[in-house]
TrEMBL record:
It comes from Humidesulfovibrio mexicanus. PROSITE patterns: PFKB_KINASES_1 (PS00583). Signal peptide: none annotated. Pfam families: PfkB (PF00294). Keywords: Kinase, Transferase. One of its GO terms (molecular function) is heptose-1-phosphate adenylyltransferase activity. Gene3D superfamilies: 3.40.1190.20. This is RfaE bifunctional protein, domain I. Residues 15-313 form the Carbohydrate kinase PfkB domain. GO terms for cellular component: cytosol.
Length: 353
């Protein structure tokens, strides 16, 4: 087991590239004291508004908050929301390579919250395929940076950035030592077929279940679902996040462990998945073994679910978290022995026939 404090030191200044769907999260807070005379709906009197980075931008924020250096590639529209997004990224000192797409709105999700309750969400987005020239610019950015980046996160929110040409380009990148950068994917179920052969996939239980076309319910679901995802995608590793159950880490098809959640208090689980993939990537960029990277990611997720909004973990917060919880042996994922045995038995029977 790596010394987690040493790992946190190692993570400082390490670069991680993120490519994916950028979003502007817009919150409108207000109060309701009457029903509209125009229609049977509440009238919200706005008190405060807030804009924050969502999607791939939030992953980049997480990387920087932990002392890493995010390089964010994505697409924005030539509109005011695009400018706001860009300004937020500059404020957070995220290095960006953004492609501007004409006639495409920057994705914005507005939540109207009154008396502490979300009343409605209003989405503005164009999620149809990008034009050839925009895709071409994205591929050019990837090639430009393949020499100085070892880890690439694909943050797929299904808004159009992640396409077959993009994934093909990622898989065929030649890195600094002739080794292609490792590809980590936070998947969107509709795009599963694009993720063939990637290094690590980090679905939540629902997304994993959808990819495997079977329920991923605790305790026996994740083992079976994991096997099915390996069959479908032929990925190297798999990390299924299980919300209150923590995570299932498949180091390989036939070997998986259960890492229970480290969360003490749970306020708001928004963005926990972004924190998981960001921490995992940064720890791997620092040279950590996969198990240690996953344990640290679980610590980071445990911190952010205890905070309000899509929060980010800090290095100090992580140091405290790892200190207050000494390493403990990790259990095999429930159902794993049986399913791995069954998989071997099926394989054995086939190879006999
Ligand atoms: N209710 C919870 N209790 C304890 N830990 C939690 C809870 N929800 C999430 N976590 C922690 O956060 C990690 C990721 O959460 P989850 O599986 O919900 O991802 P997600 O659905 O992708 O999140 P999101 O889409 O909101 O960013 C889990 O592996 C766990 O460590
Ligand atoms: Mg998620």
């Amino acid at each position: 087991m790596t010394d987690m404090n040493a790992l946190l030191d190692q993570m400082q200044g390490k670069r991680v590239m993120i490519i994916g769907d950028l979003m502007l999260d817009h919150y409108t807070f207000g109060q309701v004291s009457r029903i509209s005379p125009e229609a049977p709906v509440p009238v919200v009197e706005v008190i405060r508004e807030e804009y924050v980075l969502g999607g791939a931008g939030n992953v980049a924020l997480n990387i920087n908050a932990m002392g890493g250096q995010a390089l964010l590639a994505g697409v924005i529209g030539t509109d005011r929301d695009g400018e706001s997004l860009n300004a937020l990224l500059r404020e957070s000192a995220v290095e960006t390579r953004l492609v501007h797409a004409d006639r495409r709105r920057t994705t914005r999700k507005t939540r109207i919250i009154a008396n502490n309750q979300q009343i409605v969400r209003v989405d503005r987005e164009d999620a149809d395929p990008l034009t050839e020239s925009v895709v071409g610019e994205l591929l050019e950015i990837l090639r430009e940076h393949s020499q100085d980046i070892d880890i690439i996160i694909v943050s797929d929110y299904g808004k159009g950035v992640v396409t077959a040409p993009l994934m093909d380009a990622l898989r065929s990148l030649k890195g600094a030592h002739g080794r292609r950068p490792r590809i980590l994917v936070d998947p969107k179920p509709q795009n599963y077929d694009l993720y063939q052969g990637v290094d690590i996939l980090t679905p939540n239980a629902k997304e994993a279940g959808e990819g495997a076309a079977m329920p991923c319910s605790w305790p026996l679901g994740p083992a079976t679902v994991g096997q099915a995802l390996f069959r479908r995608l032929d990925c190297q590793h798999l990390l299924i996040t299980l919300g209150p159950q923590g995570m299932a880490l498949f180091e390989s098809r036939n070997s998986a462990r259960h890492i229970p959640t480290f969360a003490r208090t749970v306020f708001d689980v928004t963005g926990a998945g972004d924190t998981v993939i960001a921490t995992l990537a940064l720890a791997l960029a620092a040279g950590a073994p996969l198990v240690d990277a996953a344990v640290l990611a679980n610590h980071a997720a445990g911190i952010v679910v205890g905070q309000v909004g899509a929060a980010t973990p800090t290095v100090d917060g992580l140091r405290q978290a790892v200190q207050s919880r000494p390493a403990q042996p990790m259990a095999t994922l429930p159902g794993m022995d049986e399913t791995a045995f069954a998989a071997r038995a099926v394989y054995g029977a086939r190879s006999l026939g």
